[in-house]
Amino acid sequence: MSTIFDTFIAPPCHDEIETLYQDEHLVLINKPSGLLSLSGKNPQNLDSVHHRLVQIYPGCTLVHRLDFGTSGLMVVARNKAINAALCQQFSQRTITKVYSALLCGHLENDEGVIDAAIAKDPALFPLMSICALNGKPARSRYQVVERFYHRQEEGTLLPLTRVQLTPETGRTHQLRIHCQQLGHPILGCDLYGGRLLPGTEQTPRLMLHASELHFRHPISEAWMNAKNASPF
């Protein structure tokens, strides 16, 4: 068994967490890019969504996470029973998550499905890898919103595609590695090729935003249809 060393130190995040909805059972938030979901083992990585929220909502727990660079919607449980009920919805895949992203290059097809199993590889930490043999099943759908060119400071044109991504499973780094597999990594993705094209090296953040979250409220059973527009 390989030992994993996590040397990542998160730079300070000065952006606030935006609370979009709250009641006695749960909180819906908009997470800023550049903030950890959970505090790391390293004391320098104490600041996180959970660390901040537990000061306001004692006993709250995360039902799911977003990557450090991803912004957008998260649902946070205010007690263990709510956490268990929401986790069940996630495991039964009755919760729908939709993401907005900017991909490098112009996609050929207007929509499609990426079906590629994902595995952990301690030797490559923190990278995940596509592995049909040892990976867990992973499936994502994509739909093109627009294809355009971004004019850079030196005048060159960078081809980009704005897409809507819907993961049908919830593997670590799923959307990031699936877009790389598609041949069009997410702009600003340092782990999976989103900073390799000329002009993409200085992209200020990972261009991935959790824009929609649809689930059933565990107590009222009302459908919660949360939407939060992409900041890019």
Automatic annotation (TrEMBL):
- This protein's source sits in the domain of life called Bacteria
Listed InterPro entries: PsdUridine_synth_cat_dom_sf, PsdUridine_synth_RluA-like_CS, PsdUridine_synth_RsuA/RluA, RluA_PseudoU_synthase
**Sorted alphabetically, which Pfam families does this protein's record hold?**
PseudoU_synth_2 (PF00849)
EC class: isomerase
Q: Pseudouridine synthase RsuA/RluA-like domain: from which residue to which, for each copy?
A: 25-181
Kindly state which keywords UniProt assigns to this record, in alphabetical order: Isomerase
Q: What is this protein called?
A: RluA family pseudouridine synthase
Ranges in a coiled coil:
none
Q: Which residues form the signal peptide?
A: none
Annotated GO molecular function terms are: isomerase activity
Tell me which EC number(s) this protein carries.
Answer: 5.4.99.-
